[in-house]
Design goal:
eight-stranded mixed sheet; 10 helices; alpha/beta; Rossmann fold; 17% strand; two-stranded antiparallel sheet
């Protein structure tokens, strides 16, 4: 059972049966296993059903704009490297409106953990097609079927993420393990989470995924082999791999390469008004 340390008394507003419940449970299990205290973590979210998750747990929280969770997360990590910063976003939030931030955060290898609730629709705004909607998927905004979907796992490998995984909201224990590993990883960690939307997505259901997902937990798969990782990233349809797909350890993080952080963290420095005062006088 998840520790009471991470329990919130805020009523949950998700639809009954939503895949987000499994993600919330897995998240609390992972945080319990990490032994991090609530004040040692920062949850940064955008707008959407996924963005509600931080309200239902305990820790520092920053709710950003839609698609804009990464910039404040990056700023917070630079100001206080001791914080464990975790981004909570949806597929439209992270891969659509936030796609540009997503790409550059990965190539710079910021030390962040990004959990994306990937339900393949815009759930908060009534089921429009998202960047990951399957080709041909019919919604109010795609009456003739969605076009080719974005492959977030392949994009992450290409863009430079040093930890890339895919989880399933229907397997809480497995997902909790992935989140734990992502949090421990030093560098940018993406966990794309298959999250059935029981209200608007009647195709990619719990049953649909349960017939297709399989775990990459066997000893024969080399997670450091980028070519094998690309091949696994392309598997979709009859079989869908879940687990850690790619890891590239030892890559310096953005924070490590930024010389300004070699001294006292910005959050602990004594601020002085002198520089600002001088600038103001220069303009007078």
């Amino acid at each position: 059972m998840a520790s009471k340390l991470y329990e919130s008394n805020i009523p949950i507003a998700w639809c009954p049966g939503c895949g987000d419940f499994g993600i919330l449970d897995a998240f609390k299990k992972a945080m319990t296993a990490s032994k991090l205290k609530p004040h040692e973590i920062l949850l940064v979210s955008g707008i959407g059903q996924a963005g509600k998750l931080p309200h239902y747990t305990r820790g520092n929280v920053f709710n950003s704009l839609h698609g804009r969770a990464l910039p404040p997360a990056i700023g917070a990590k630079l100001a206080n490297p001791a914080l464990k910063v975790i981004i909570i976003a949806g597929d439209g939030d992270a891969y659509g409106e936030g796609g540009n931030h997503f790409l550059h955060a990965m190539r710079r290898n910021h030390d962040l953990t990004c959990l994306v609730h990937d339900n393949q629709v815009y759930g908060l705004t009534k089921g429009q097609a998202s960047p990951t909607s399957d080709s041909g998927y019919v919604t109010k905004t795609t009456p003739y079927g969605a076009l080719s979907p974005l492959n977030p796992v392949a994009v992450a490998i290409t863009a430079g993420a040093t930890f890339v995984a895919r989880g399933f909201a229907g397997d809480v224990e497995h997902l909790a393990g992935l989140i734990s590993r992502g949090i421990k990883h030093k560098g940018f960690a993406l966990i794309d989470i298959l999250q059935p939307c029981v209200t608007f997505n009647k195709v990619n259901t719990f049953g649909w995924y349960q017939e297709r997902v399989y775990k990459l937990d066997n000893a024969g798969y080399d997670r450091s082999d980028v070519i094998k990782a690309y091949r696994k990233a392309q598997e979709w349809g009859r079989r869908i791999p879940i687990g850690v797909i790619y890891v590239k350890p030892g890559v310096p993080t953005f924070e490590e390469r930024l010389g300004l952080l070699d001294s006292e963290p910005i959050s602990r420095r004594v601020l002085s008004a002198a520089p600002a005062t001088k600038l103001i006088k220069d303009f007078l």
